[in-house]
């Protein structure tokens, strides 16, 4: 547990919007001593109405805490990391929930915080924003990326254990650049495509007729276009190069589909669609096998780090993390096929 | 009611897959005398196991019926229309459930069936296919496009009344070409985009990591990529020109989003996303006002047809259709803003 010595973890959440608020409420429900802070005084009042301490300054909120979740908007994170680091003990674990990881990871490393800042990204969200949309269940069982670094292994272990314990998270360990590439396809492109489809309909002379006909495929395909445009724009801009690269890949695929369609070639068109169906079937149809690995807790961590990154790259996740008797023991789930080499 | 003279309608369904099977089961549950036919003998046996007559020939299945639903694959429809027309009385109403309407409407008109063939398209579906995936509730309350023609108004009225009565359908009247243009954006483009996104992930070196991270946006955005590739290919090919034209519009929108992203312009990017959000908000947030219109039942139908097509173009739908005392009375819902001119 974060907080050490078998004691109750003391936690803080900085930025109590949709994600931060949901983290806060879950930590409170789990019985942790938790404090919240938000730049908006009215939001702080609403945090207090939830029975959670919300001091007027971020320094008061994070002082003496064992773990701090940084949940403000993406562009504010590098400055917030510095401010919270200065107000906390060097043993305090810091993490964030931003949708891209390379930039904030570099900013934290530059500030000499690689040993206690663990970049994080829970894969969950909602179209609504703000504390009023937050719920303790929002992140329950979510895939939650953490980016362990060579100097931050003890911090990673403490945080992973807390997330599995309190949020039942499927902790996916990845390097920050690999996370950002995968997130471009897993999350950012779906937002871009939904925005383009919904925007095209908005400009269409047939808009009202289209909306009258719209059923499952349009409704599902544009759901995330209902989210706050500024939040989505920040997310895309925070991963700009990778999003543009993956957009090129999606457009090349659309070119192939359009070519088969223009040629009136049902076999070729169905073949391209079948490739996509394979990925879709793998999304919900994967079987997992359970694995268990032990490493010396005080070693140089190279083998441990390689195991973790290989696990994430293979589509697996941690289901447990325990440090005892000089060893760290991970339990993990891996997709059954293909097996991890 | 179809069948006339206050008697029970007698119906048939030709092609008892996902949609046809769902139509059949619903008609059966509503107490109609219904027969089914499918080219596959095993499927006919399963229809009989549902307590529904399923003769071995299509001619036996449709003989003496007042309404026949043609629910086979899109490319087979023109031939099936001719075959079923030859085996039924000239007062028997024929309709189909195909995802595009211009081609089958033209085929039926060419065969001199404009007075009794009413092109139809219920906006519902599922990723699975076949009778085993059919349920009586699949089409309940669905938007259901019907394409009334100048010579087929009595057939249209009888069918609309049946669909509203038995399926609680929101009947959307449209011309066949307008349906196909609207369906390209409401249904076909979502399938194309889902296929391109899922296919790109399938080919990506990061496939397994992407699937590990995939949450709501990816899952929703690729749902229809899980459907049978041949069915989707037929649907897209049946509306090829319009799908390609709308794909160009969506790609132009993606170009604008990419340009704002590449320029690092949060305001411009959020502005483009906000346009899409407006359409998305209109999808579920529309308020409707109730309307009622009466026409002489035996007139030349020009005013009635104009009213119906204007209703569909404005995003409205019929909630009732009744012929009595020499007049036809429609009740309809129209989006509250903008009002119908």
From TrEMBL, chains A, B:
According to its UniProt entry, one GO biological process term is: tyrosine biosynthetic process
This protein's record includes keyword Oxidoreductase = yes
Occurrences of domain Prephenate/arogenate dehydrogenase (ranges)? 9-291
Residues annotated as coiled-coil are none
Whether Lipid metabolism counts among this entry's keywords is no
The protein in question is named: Prephenate dehydrogenase/arogenate dehydrogenase family protein
Checking InterPro entries in the record gives: 6-PGluconate_DH-like_C_sf, NAD(P)-bd_dom_sf, PDH_C, PDH_N, Preph/Arog_dehydrog, Prephen_DH
Q: Which organism is it from?
A: Micromonospora terminaliae
User: What GO molecular functions are on record for this protein?
Assistant: NAD+ binding; prephenate dehydrogenase (NAD+) activity; prephenate dehydrogenase (NADP+) activity
Q: Cite the entry's keywords alphabetically.
A: Oxidoreductase
The positions making up the signal sequence are none
The family annotation for this protein states:
Belongs to the prephenate/arogenate dehydrogenase family.
Q: Which SUPFAM superfamilies match?
A: 6-phosphogluconate dehydrogenase C-terminal domain-like, NAD(P)-binding Rossmann-fold domains
């Amino acid at each position: 547990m974060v907080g050490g010595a078998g004691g109750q973890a003391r936690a803080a959440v900085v930025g109590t919007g949709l994600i931060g608020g949901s983290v806060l409420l879950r930590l409170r429900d789990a019985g942790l001593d938790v404090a919240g802070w938000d730049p908006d005084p009215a939001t702080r009042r609403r945090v207090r109405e939830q029975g959670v301490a919300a001091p007027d300054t971020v320094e008061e909120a994070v002082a003496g805490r064992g773990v701090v979740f940084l949940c403000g908007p993406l562009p504010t994170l590098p400055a917030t990391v510095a401010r919270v680091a200065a107000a906390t003990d060097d043993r305090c674990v810091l993490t964030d929930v931003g949708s891209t990881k390379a930039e904030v990871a570099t900013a934290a490393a530059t500030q000499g915080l690689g040993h206690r800042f663990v970049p994080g990204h829970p894969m969950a969200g909602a179209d609504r924003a703000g504390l009023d949309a937050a719920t303790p269940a929002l992140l329950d069982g979510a895939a939650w990326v953490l980016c362990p670094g060579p100097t931050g292994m003890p911090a990673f272990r403490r945080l992973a254990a807390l997330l599995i314990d309190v949020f039942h998270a499927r902790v996916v360990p990845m390097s920050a650049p690999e996370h950002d590439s995968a997130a471009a396809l897993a999350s950012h492109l779906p937002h871009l495509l939904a925005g383009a489809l919904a925007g095209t309909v908005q400009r269409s002379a047939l808009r009202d007729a289209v909306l009258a006909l719209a059923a499952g495929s349009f409704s599902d395909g544009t759901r995330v276009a209902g989210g706050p445009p500024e939040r989505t724009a920040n997310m895309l801009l925070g991963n700009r190069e990778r999003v543009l690269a993956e957009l090129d890949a999606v457009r090349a695929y659309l070119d192939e589909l359009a070519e088969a369609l223009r040629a009136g070639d049902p076999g070729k068109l169905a073949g391209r669609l079948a490739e996509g169906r394979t990925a879709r079937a793998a999304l919900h149809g994967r079987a997992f096998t359970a694995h268990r690995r032990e490493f010396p807790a005080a070693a140089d961590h190279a083998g441990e780090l390689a195991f973790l990154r290989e696990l994430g790259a293979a589509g697996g996740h941690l289901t447990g993390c325990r440090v005892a008797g000089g060893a760290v023991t991970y339990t993990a789930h891996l997709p059954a096929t293909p097996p991890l080499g």
